[in-house]
Fold each of these.
Amino acid sequence: QVQLAESGGGSVQAGGSLRLSCAASGFIYNSYCVVWFRQAPGKEREGVAAIDSDGSTSYANSVKGRFTISEDNTNHTVYLQMSSLKPEDTATYYCAAEGYPVRCGPTSYFGMTNWGAGTAVTISS
């Protein structure tokens, strides 16, 4: 059974940084895609970043140049390093993962069934 657990959220001032973690268990695919997406109160979900099993990464335009997705295969963890944070980055951040994806990009979470419970990020101005 695949389980994903996000951590690392918190409250910081604009311009600050946070690193989110997505720890995976029971995920044994050789080919996979992991996506970070977010949802702010009253807003639709937004794909933020994705990484595949080849290490290829992709980002939403809204976070490109500020966020970095990476993975530690030893610890089965995917990270989202967030810098130059803005109030509009305030949201609950989720990770989602799937094996043998047809494609892997920030919007790939739509078809994924393995999600974590999310971690809240609040950016104050």
Amino acid sequence: VQLQASGGGLVQAGESLRLSCAASGRLFGNYDMGWLRQAPGKEREVVAAINWSGSRTYYVDSVKGRFTISRVRSSLSLQMNILKPEDTAVYYCAARPRRIASAYDPTSHEYDYWGQGTQVTVSS
């Protein structure tokens, strides 16, 4: 799987951005996907995750109600609304082969494939 992330940029607090991740190379539908971010001096965190079928989603508490993860065919998206300065980070899309429902851990950082990262900067 090859992942190409795009959509980052510089916005003001309260504005929106939509990140996209195009996947190619294998059957996209068989992969669990996620968006992770890392800010300078901070640990990487899972922002949002979605399982292979789209039936399960996860959001870190700080983005609940503001971010929405979705997937359609070979594309993964992250709609980010009401952005805050603390959302400033490099955002990565990631993928791993799907797991059975009982083994699905959306908070895991263990992904097999990663996009190149896209910078999101939110000014106050």
